[in-house]
What we know:
This protein is mostly helical. It has one domain (3-88). The chain has three helices and no strands. The model has no long low-confidence stretch (mean pLDDT 93).
Amino acid sequence: MTAEDDIIRGQRAAAILADPLVQETFAALEAAYIKQWRTAPSLDAREALWLLLQNLETFRGQFGAYIRQGQAVAAEGDRREKARKQDAEP
């Protein structure tokens, strides 16, 4: 994967997470899982719902990792470009 691919992937991940429908979906799933967890009839049911919540956070976190990676690659590219320009100045 190229640096440009990392940047684009990070931008896409940011756009997806910023999408109101995606935000609404995450919030609705989280609320539903918590509500069901509170009234779960057994320890096994609560554990399954807890795992669903953890998976939701893992999914969200992976998008965050893509965003951070893209930002880091872009910042490094900016730093190198700035250094190249400074080296080229008389």
